[in-house]
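Table S7 (text form). Paired inputs.
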Amino acid sequence: MTKITDWGAQDLSRAIHAKDVSCVEVMHAYLERIHALNHSTNAIVQMCDDEALLVQAAARDAEMSAGRDRGWMHGIPQAIKDTTQVQGMPTSLGSVLLKDNIPMSDSITVERVRAAGAIIVGKTNVPELGLGSHTFNDVYGATPNAYDPSRSAGGSSGGAAAALAHRMLPVADGSDFMGSLRNPAGWNNIFGMRPSHGAVPSAPGADIWVSHLGTEGPMARRVEDLVGLFKTQAGYDSRQPLSVDVGVSAGGVDPTLNGVRIGWLGDLDGHLAVESGVLEACLSGIKRMEAGGASVEEVHVDLDLESVWSAWLTWRGVLLGPRLAALLALPGARDILKPEAIWEYDHSLGITLKDFTRASEVRTTLYNRLNGLLKKYDVLALPVAQVWPFPIEQRWPQSIGERRMDSYHRWMEVTIYATLAGLPAISVPTEFNMIGQWPMGIQLIGRPRGDFDLLALAGRYERYIDDWLNTPAHSAQLF
């Protein structure tokens, strides 16, 4: 008999609504698992009081008995990424400077999961200020990879990904600026989706017109659960005027991949430095797609990719510079912030309006190129990361093979294309490394506002990878 914590989020929802299990029983099961594992996994931080959570769960049971159903997440435990605002809970962003920052209101996505019935149990760990794809900070420490605790869980949604893989949460939220939903999903053998530009509104915030490279989105162990959380998060909100409704899937009911056309980008004709074995692992997943009926062709992007990287750095500097300037105005901040944050700020200082305009033009060209390819292919595919999970004590990969990385995030360049183009992208699990210890993911980029079609395709692929999905995390040896 499976444990409650082994159930998917939708299975859990169905059981609660059928009254096969109570919300109190669910909360007890998750609290037991969190307390057994979190001391070693360090995935969930700022845990709420057990008794208070059980009181909330009992109230959800009383509501259900009285015929009040809040939604599909009724009574489901949820921990929120520590970059996302939750009323009354510290939103530290993993920074000592912000450890006592307590918001007075929820973000839009937190409002929505609460309205759907979720019970907030804590926050999930992040890198300092969400910068870098390696979850460690001076407030809570590091979060290890769910499959090898000597390795990084990725980031910045590393706590969320590890908590899911360890079955400490049934479903989780995250956010993605430079692969922060995709990279940790790939490295922890789960699904993570970066939605289309504007699909998931993010507020409150100081700016609602320009800051759209980052977006919140869902993570899950199964696509069905990913769809459920995405539906809750997504949709227009007048507080975010550039938010949009992305509609529904136009796909049919064929459970195979017959007729699906995949454009394989690989390492972008050698532009990307990729660690040995990563492309081969991704191609194992691509071969499973072919076995399911998909057709695959190698694709070449007719564009100066170094100019795209330069445009990325410009956009990143424009968005991060002012935020970091506000923190650096605090006493002693330059000595407290991690070097990577200082690098970001210093880089932002020389950016001119002319630079920003040019970067926006390059971004437009990239969108048009990818959109053109997506008229021929259903998705574009490439690795979700350029390296395997690296040692947890390492800040970031200094080199890949013979190629030195010229910044702390150059090794994640593979993620910037979907971000800059505002296209939906999903990380789907693929083969582990040759000793079966480190997971990897394939990044599938979909058509503009084609979020539900992309999810449908991922659900069809899921049928062919049960052996990878059922590979147990390290916690299987502990609990």
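Next pair, protein 2 of 2.
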Amino acid sequence: MAHDQYCDKDDLKAYVGLTGSGQDNNIDNAINAASREIDQLCKRVFFETETTEDKYFNPTEALRIVVPDISKTTSLVVKLDTTDDGTHDTTLVKDTDFYLNPINPPQIATAGGTIYYEPYNELQILSTRSSERFDPTIPKNIKITAFWGFSRVPDAIKQACLLQATRLWKRKDSPFSTYGNPATGTGELFNRFDPDALKLIKGYAKKTL
């Protein structure tokens, strides 16, 4: 499974009762498409970047900033440009200068003895411990180096991907937007995201679906 796919090809083949490799390319395409549809609907991604990446932010407040999902605190570095010269000269210390929200992120899963949690999405300056402040007057004031996204795909997202990828894969058998057989009749093929998958991902959306 590619790191940005939300279900495994073998899992989907087992889900639809398929053996052999003749449909592997079609299945991969369906999984990729379903995964990106989920990203678009939820306004976030559910995979973790393979390496740390730098992101820059223009704060609007002195003590708080909302950021994209930070998957874990490993290798997290937060720096400020305090002189407006493009150099991020001040490094903030976690739990001394700032803390991350949510304070107790929900657990996603446990695998191989490792506990995985939902990501962090807010930095809050500890004003009682630190004199550091975000500066809204300085462009790109904040530089954050982190692993971004989710440390593990949530079970609900995986199941939603299975449902939607199956739907997309089956579409090849319904070129005129219908499906069925003589025994069950022919029905209209949905032209939208799978409604059951939508219910599964709704709680993970950053905006109301």
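Helices lie at 9-16, 24-42, 155-170, 195-201.
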